[in-house]
Hints:
With 479 residues, chain A is mainly alpha-helical. Chain A has helices spanning 3-28, 34-59, 66-88, 98-119, 128-144, 160-187, 189-208, 212-216, 220-246, 249-252, 254-257, 259-273, 283-301, 316-335, 368-386, 390-409, 424-428, 445-478; strands at 339-349, 351-360, 435-441. Chain B has a domain at 165-284: Protein Transport Mog1p, Chain A, CATH 3.40.1000. Helix content of chain B is 32%, strand content 31%. In chain B, strands 4, 5, 6, 7, 8, 9, 10, 11 and 12 form a nine-stranded antiparallel sheet that branches. A three-stranded mixed sheet of chain B has the order 2-1-3, with no helix packed on it.
Amino acid sequence: xxxxFISAVVFAIAAIGAVTSFVLTxxxxxxxxxTVLVGGxxxxxxxxxxxVGGWHALVELxxxxxxxLSLALVGGALAxxxxxxxxxxxxxxxxxxxxxxxxxxxxxxGVLVVLGGYFISRERSALTAIAGAVCAAAGAAGLLASWExxxxxxxxxxxxxxxxxxxxxxxxxxxxAISLAEAARRLGARSAxxxxxxxxxxxxxxVSLPVLPASVSAGxxxxxxxxxxxxxxxxxxxxxxxxSAHAGxxxxxxxxxxxxxxxxxxxxxxxxxxxxxxxxxxxxxxxxGSAIACTGAAVVWLSDVDRNASRAVRGRVATAxxxxxxxxxxxxxxxxxTPAIAALSEGNVGESFRAAWTMLGFESAAGWMPVAxxxxxxxAALEARRGxxxxxxxxxxxAVFACALAMPALSxxxxxxxxxxxxxxxxxxxxxxxxRLSMSAIVDPVRVVAMALAVTSAGVLGLSAVxxxxxxxxxxxxx
Amino acid sequence: xxxxRRTAVTVGIVVxxxxxxxxxxxxxxxVEVKSGTxxxxxxxxxxxxxxxxxxxPADKAGAYRVRTxxxxxxxxxxxxxxxxxxxAALAAGDTKTAAIKLAQVLAIDPTYRxxxxxxxxxxxxxxxxxxxxxxxxxxxxxxxxVVPVVPDKPGEAPGTVGSLGKWTPDTITxxxxxxxxxxxxxxxxxxxxxxxxxxxxxxIVAEQFRTSADAKGALDRQVKRAYTxxxxxxxxxxxxxxxxxxxxxxxxxxxxxxxxxxxxxLTAAKSPEDLRSLAQKVASQLP
Lengths: 479, 287
């Protein structure tokens, strides 16, 4: 079978496994203790993976180096036990909100894996992968902030300590994923997965023992989602480790970037087919955010360095593209601090409250589009000059245009619905007849120019490449 | 390759530092808030407003509110008094005095339909019957006193005068209070049981009406007709209170105090008829 097709199928399983694990964890977390849920699901996943050939693969490992075995054991314990347990222990039923949790435990974990993969594991991925990860994160933020209005998405606003610990969990996952990828290259994906899940299961069961009696009384209905979660973890672990062994952890992380759009698709299907009343989605934001998140994931997936190096894009025009992109970076960074949204909070809970203020670029989804676009443009220009990864920089350049198109759709989407200084009773009743939050976009010239520079850089780079190709073509015809 | 990595790290550091700077700036932002008092008549008209828009540091913004005082204005106090006197005159068969008083009512409020009908009837030589519903709450003989208008002082509360808040106290024995929800003419508050209780939840709603007749009408429509099972009239704090259940989950105890209707809804853990004594105990803690 075509290797690319197999890679695509396995990657799709990883993405579905990531989303399913998130959903089932949310379902089961209120009925079972965190340690039992993570330990039990790891055990189920281990049994499943061992049953489909993993055990047989383990038996053949006796001759392999202890270092490789240790990498698999430690990597599995970190990625499939420590990281999920640390993240889950920060979750209460709705604190942080589902949108915040999804962002911190999928998208930002993906960003950390990309950074770890690029800087620590030194995989042969292009610099555009980092820009792609930023692009995917900016898109996911815009998407999740458009799930409802007013949005429950407010990173680092309501539960900053819990969310910071979710990021720490992400770093733990990234370390585990990098270890597992290395182990899988030496031992094979199936053996590394089985060993890793085995380590997670042993640790999980040992730590769960003290609280197990209390959980047993929860009944079969409480345990059933945990078993399903085990299936999801098994699917995710096998496909993730296989992908990271064959394509690298940087590319595998694209599966995590697809989790928010996939969750949105599930919610949309659920709304369309069941009786859940009107959809709360802000559709423009959802579509724009999904498109950018998927674009970022595509940039990350296609960021591996081509084995057949393309010709470097050089000359004054290509150099100009780098400098224009650098200007875009500078201006987009400045625009994070310029006005982006005019906000108005009104409440009539007890005494009436009314406050109007200006949100800055970093608090709006549109504010991050020029940052992502400028990073994509700069990394694309740098990669193009190196002449090593044509596919990476072409896709990154195309993604700049996507960011520019998405920016107007996200212009009134705030990433900061919750404010510490607004009375809690007002914020909790947003969307009812007692209180409301209104947003209107502010057109900031600095932000517009930053985006325009990023687009110009990508355009100039494209033209420069086309001109080079034409010259090549005409020279061939002449010869 | 080293150049590219160095560039990436530099760009990352610049973005992070700039972001930190922006965050620090954002924390010191100024917010435009409204502050002051608005005085609203029980009839719904705004009597006075003293509201200013000012710019304050964001961390102080939560302290600035627009306070609404609900009171009965001079105009509607006079109107209620004249109407009550007209009805008293009609009841006594004194149509001459009634016509004068009804003319006073219509001079104040030409749209007062009942007064207009009675005045027209008298003008045609008829003898209309007196309005049998009780006089408006502003009648000096009513149980709710006429509330004096407190001079506006921006940002200062007028105290509890004219407030419905007294019907939703912070403490009720056996319950823990949630935050009150209110608008100018109603207040509601949910309470959760603090220990084992036959009730799973308690909600108290107090609603201000224009007249005590309106309040009694609301009690009939909203409470008595909806909670018809286990009906009983109880004496609480000198008032007649209606107790009823829906026969399934909810028990309600409702009463009026002048132009205010108060309804206490209890959610039963088992059967709602068991909640009668608890409802009495809770109601006895209200004014």
